[in-house]
Structure formats: C-alpha cells, structure tokens
Amino acid sequence: xxxxxxxxxxxxxxxxxxxxxxxxxxxxxxxxxxxxxxxxxxxxxxxxxxxxxxxxxxxxxxxxxxxxxxxxxxxxxxxxxxxxxxxxxxxxxxxxxxxxxxxxxxxxxxxxxxxxxxxxxxxxxxxxxxxxxxxxxxxxxxxxxxxxxxxxxxxxxxxxxxxxxxxxxxxxxxxxxxxxxxxxxxxxxxxxxxxxxxxxxxxxxxxxxxxxxxxxxxxxxxxxxxxxxxxxxxxxxxxxxxxxxxxxxxxxxxxxxxxxxxxxxxxxxxxxxxxxxxxxxxxxxxxxxxxxxxxxxxxxxxxxxxxxxxxxxxxxxxxxxxxxxxxxxxxxxxxxxxxxxxxxxxxxxxxxxxxxxxxxxxxxxxxxxxxxxxxxxxxxxxxxxxxxxxxxxxxxxxxxxxxxxxxxxxxxxxxxxxxxxxxxxxxxxxxxxxxxxxxxxxxxxxxxxxxxxxxxxxxxxxxxxxxxxxxxxxxxxxxxxxxxxxxxxxxxxxxxxxxxxxxxxxxxxxxxxxxxxxxxxxxxxxxxxxxxxxxxxxxxxxxxxxxxxxxxxxxxxxxxxxxxxxxxxxxxxxxxxxxxxxxxxxxxxxxxxxxxxxxxxxxxxxxxxxxxxxxxxxxxxxxxxxxxxxxxxxxxxxxxxxxxxxxxxxxxxxxxxxxxxxxxxxxxxxxxxxxxxxxxxxxxxxxxxxxxxxxxxxxxxxxxxxxxxxxxxxxxxxxxxxxxxxxxxxxx
Length: 732
Known about the structure:
Elements: H1 18-21, H2 26-38, E1 50-58, E2 65-72, E3 86-90, H3 91-102, H4 112-116, H5 137-141, E4 147-151, H6 154-160, H7 165-173, E5 177-180, H8 187-199, E6 205-208, E7 212-217, H9 220-240, H10 258-276, E8 284-288, H11 291-297, H12 302-308, H13 313-319, E9 324-325, H14 335-360, E10 375-378, E11 382-387, H15 390-413, H16 421-428, H17 431-439, E12 450-454, H18 459-469, E13 474-479, H19 482-496, E14 513-517, H20 523-537, E15 542-545, H21 561-589, E16 593-598, H22 611-631, E17 635-642, H23 654-663, H24 674-687, H25 697-708, E18 719-722
C-alpha cells in the first residue's frame, strides 16, 4: 500500500494496493476501489454513497467501442459490493436524456418530469445488465471526469450540516472544492453539478449541503487518493477545534454501571418493543451503549440537538425525522419513572409525527407509516434502535451513530442545522422510494419474529431452527452444549448472511442467529439465557423446547432414583421452568406469543423398559394443557409428540441403537456405521406404523413450524402426534 507522500492519514484507513489491482479490468478496479472506501465507516456509512467509472467496452451489437458508465446500482453497499451491484449505461444515451428533460413543458426540482427521468435509465442500459440504476446516476454521468466518488464522511457532513456551510467549505478546501446548496438527489442535482464544473473547470469536488462529498479524477487511484485526502483535511480541521470535555455542552448525567444498565435494558426492552409495534408490525432492537453514544445522550446539549433530527438523507430514511430523547436521570429516578416518561414521550412523539405528516404531505403522498420512533435515547443508558429485522436495526443504529458524529463536528466548528421539515418529508415519503418499497418481495411468515429454540444443537431442534430461519425468523439457538448451539447458529448465519450495518454493543451486534448454553433445570441459567437474548434482539416471540432425555434402565430393567429424578427434571420441570420464566417477558411485550413443547407418543402407550421416560412425557402432555390455560389469552401453548425419530437424535446413541436391534432380533453387523445401524432401526419402527415410512427430524420441524405459526392461531392446549400412524397411540 502506498499512500500519497504529502498526506499522513490519521482519520481514514488507506487501503489501496497497486499490486492487488494489477491486471484487473476497469470494472474489477471499480469494485476494488468501492470495497476499500466502504470498509471504513469514517468514509461512508453502510449502503451509503456511490462510485463510478467510465470505461470503453465492446458493444455486443456493433462490435465497436462504446463509452459506458459503471455506477453503483440501487440498493448496493460499497463495502460488500461485487460487479453485480453495478449498473451499466451507454454514456451517449445517458447524456441524451438531458435533451429529453429539456423538452418537458414543466421541469425543475421535485417535479413529476424530474422523477420521470428515472424511468428512462433502463433505456440506456448497456449489455442487458439487470442491475437497476440509482437516483444518483446523473451526478456521475453529467460530471466529465472518468472516475467519481460520492461519499458520506462524517467529517465532511459536519461541514455540510453547519450554519456557515458554504463559507467553511471555502475556508477548509480553498478553491479546489466548490459547494452546492441542498437539492434532493436526482436529475436536477446532476445538472447543477455539471453547471458548477463548467463554470469552474479547476474544481476537484463539491461539498453537497446537508448531504456529503462528491469528487472526481481521470485516474481511479487518483480519485481514491483525493477522496481520502479531502476527508482527512476536514477531520483535522474539526480535531483542531474539538471541545474535549465540553463537547455537546459537557456531561449532565453520569453513565450507569454496566451491570445495572444491562439489568435495566433486560427489563425495559420487551416492554418498549410492544409499544413501538404498529398494526402488528413487530420490530427487532439493537442496543448501543459505548462511550461515544453515552457522551452524547448524557450531555447538556442532547435534548436540543436530538430535537433537530438528522441531516444526511441516507441517515434520515432510517432514523426518521428525529429520535425520541427521554429526560431521565438514573441517579435520582427509578425504572418506573423511566417507563412513565417513555409512555408520555411516545404519545407526544406520535402526535408530533402525525402533525409533521399532515403539515408536509402532498395529495399523492403515501399513507403515514409507523408513527413511533426508530431511535430512542436514554441518558445514562445509551441508544435503542429498531428495524424490521436485525440487519436493518443495526443500520439504523449505525446511522444515528454517524448523525451524532456529524453533530459533534458541526458544533465544534460552527452550529449544527438539520434539514427543513418539508425537505425531510419529501425524502421520507418520496414516491420513488415508495415505489422501491412496493417492489420488495413480501415478508416471510416469521419475519420480524424472534424464536427461542431449546435443544437447537442437534436433531429435531437443529432441524426446526433451519425450518424457521427459512421463514425469516431470528433464531436463539440454546442447548446444554453451548458449542453445539453455536454451531447451529453459525450454520444459519452462513446461510442467510450476517446482514449489513456495523452497530450494536456486545451481543446486540449479532446477526440473524445466536448460540447460547442453558441448563433448563437451573432457573438462574434460564434467566441468563433470556437476558442475553433480550439484549440481542429486544424481545422473544416464540419458544420451542425440543430438549429431553431418555435414560435407559440397566440389564435388570431397573432405573436408579437419580435417573428418575433427572428424567422428570429435564422433560417436565425444565420445560415448565423456561415457560414460567418467559411469562413476564410475554406480558411486558403485550404481543401474541406461541410456545411448543416436545412430548412423545410414548406418553399414551404403556409398555416395558421406559417407565420413567413415558410417565414424564405423560406429565409433559398435561403440562401443555395447564400452561395453555395459565398463559392465555396472550400466548398459545401446544405440543408436538414424535415417535422413534432415530436420525440425528441424541436419544439414540450407538449403544442404544445396538441394544434395540438386539431386542427386536434385527440382523446387523457390529462393524456397521452409525448411520447404517440407525437406518435399520428406523426402518423397523417404520414398518410398525400405518404409513410405513421412517419418521425424520424434518417431519417434526414441519409440525412445530405449523404450531408456532399464525396458521394455527386458534389452536392451544393441543398435542399433535407426528408418529407415522401408531394406532396404539390413538387418543381414546
């Protein structure tokens, strides 16, 4: 890596490596440049900013060279982008759209004619590239340089969001960087930038008021170097004027001790989650409690600055018009006082949001969305961010972290100002953004929900975790073996992705699944499990217990007293313990929940050799019915009763399988593999059923999915047998 000799970078990471790009195509170099820029959150936020390169390509129709604009497409993220995330457009066709726009009878910022230009971008597509062009395409196409970077660096947005933005831009960057006033991204902004460069060809970039930085060069490495150099210059200017302990007016509230803060959050988050749910649309939480966010929320200026809201449109789309700041002091007020202030604050926030919507809406504006805050700030505690899934809530938290840094910088060098409400509304409720939302695929059945699976480390529990994750669920994988639980969580994360966004303190920075150890015979172990789960996601919607034990008798058919006790401790008492510990959480959330316990058809079949197991499962069946009564009407409780699930089950270790094969006089080879031996036993059990088919973990997972889902919303207190048709287990 070789940084420009004239710059010693302190505020950004210089990642360009000439050796890495040797031999790359222009598009590959663009991807490389984009990944380097996106890897540093001080350069741009997740999903924010865009890059482009103009390259000569062979036209597939004519075989002639064509000048093509490669630009980050709609919805991409620079840090994780590949070539497939970039749109490609013929430059001559894109530039020709200026004449189409000029011919419109009514044109200008935010006119139907301007928005309509987005519909022409597909007509400029090179080589049938399916990636949709973003609204920022004209910014790149209408600038004459071959390479353009548009970033959202906190340091430059601090300048862009300052009251004296234009003067500061000149003072910091001199004549090499110009300034343009706030204008919503789109065709008009591209034309404005084109005019600025035509009037001053020496410009290397522009500060975009309330928005960010755009700069360019005719060499891609030079463009990258310039981007970092400008950001570094802005960051140093701010650093020289940093207010130290007087940042944000100095500390007003002392931060809580970590243990006290986490205990508060564990009690508060499910309660708050229920109150920010709107029309049944649940949200997933991310908690930020680090020193940087604490410095802001604990400060004297936090109430004033929070009320102003965010500036950069990328921030605003996630963080809404403003956060909810709660004026609470943990040193003198208790949790009850905090909840009371949150109740009042939420009511006022909803009223304010409705008033904002009514004052700013247009005749064709989309209907008002969830009027609750997506960011909640609590002095002494930190920030709670909400989103439709874990990835989105992490992005929301990340963006408000960026907003805080922008406010810090702006207040250090000048005075922070936010977007006017009408401009903010026109971004939040932009018809083009609404159309993008409408094009998104429908949410899956368990989207927005958190499912705790006890026994997720193997067998039926692992299978159920995969089945529910496929339906969009966030999965808490719990098991007596923390390693097995984590292995299942790792499988799910690898399959569905960690998601984007780089926020979240501790476990709250997790992805779609976490793995935790738990002993369900120990209530303190359960409480630790639930506390960690709440800090990770903000609440829990469903519980599935697949954990259980079968302890075989000795050769004389006897079972020790300890084995009897352990069988009931796990199969009955353990299931009750965790359901009972969850009662308060479900009540605090006030959201409909579901519980499924795994029992067994053995509960209704009398036989020799498994008396402790069978009677424990009979008790578990009745536990289902009792809990259904106790937890109604908010929570449904049902059971799934498997039979002889040999595949992947910890209840069928090799010794037990062999013992069963001997018992039933089934021929086998001692040298046979575990899978072969299990297959023989499973086939024997299958032939005893009416369907004559082996019972698999997938069969159980499908039944559990049904019983946990809203598809069985009117069913509670029932036990569903999944046994292939054992007539001995028919209910009588």
